[in-house]
Specification:
11 strands; globular; five-stranded antiparallel sheet; about 230 residues; about 10% helix; mainly beta; Jelly Rolls
């Protein structure tokens, strides 16, 4: 039965990932409990589960399950191998919300092989982290992108704009800059989101810009030195 379930999951996964224009990767067998050796130890979740489990990586070199990456008059989103912060690829994001019919521009990431992610243990102490830069010669005052998480019941967290409070220095230019948005800002519980069944990260875009984004993942916040 597991072999049949694996083949069915593989066929469905290949179809959905092909729609995002990415290389095809192996799908998980059954559930995270079956595949992840760090998930349970003596029926107790290991303390380093999130760090070692694939749920911590959202975009590194290739797109996971996704939607919204089709090219149209409003956007031109792709994986770029020429300008990267680390690894083999970055997200090259170019958009123009001022055009007619471009009232809302957004994308969604369904990482962790299309399974929900249990973020209940990290929503107060971890952050969404990524590196960002502009195209050569460009400089912008802030990163005009909003972020929100969605649970399995289609409830969303607070939407957080990527303002300068989440990175050092003013503005963004062709030098890579690290952005860290603490997960506590998303107010999972107050928003009615179930942190045990998070299934998407939603990004929506404002204004007009062209940027590169790389190494997007969940990381543990380090305490500030006194």
């Amino acid at each position: 039965m597991r072999k049949i379930a694996f083949i069915s999951s593989l066929i469905a996964g290949l179809y959905m990932m092909t729609s995002c224009g990415v290389q095809m990767l192996p799908m998980a067998l059954d559930t995270a409990e079956d595949n992840d050796p760090y998930y349970k130890i003596n029926d107790t979740k290991n303390s380093d589960y999130v760090e070692l489990f694939t749920a911590s990586s959202i975009f590194l070199d290739d797109l996971p399950g996704c939607w919204g990456f089709e090219k149209d008059a409003c956007r031109d989103f792709m994986v770029d191998s020429k300008i990267v912060y680390k690894g083999m690829g970055s997200l090259h994001l170019k958009w123009d919300k001022s055009k007619k019919g471009c009232d809302w521009i957004g994308v969604g990431f369904m990482w962790n092989n299309w399974q929900t992610v249990d973020m209940s243990d990290i929503i107060d102490t971890w952050a969404l982290e990524f590196w960002v830069r502009t195209a050569d010669g460009d400089e912008i005052g802030s990163v005009p992108i909003n972020f929100a998480f969605l649970d399995n019941n289609n409830k969303t967290t607070s939407t957080i704009a990527c303002g300068s409070r989440f990175y050092e220095g003013f503005g963004v230019n062709p030098t890579w800059k690290r952005v860290q948005i603490p997960l506590s800002y998303f107010r999972f519980v107050d928003s009615g989101v179930n942190p045990v069944e998070v299934n998407q990260l939603i990004m929506s875009f404002e204004g007009t810009a062209e940027i590169y984004l790389d190494e997007m993942k969940l990381v543990e916040l380090q305490p500030k030195e006194e």
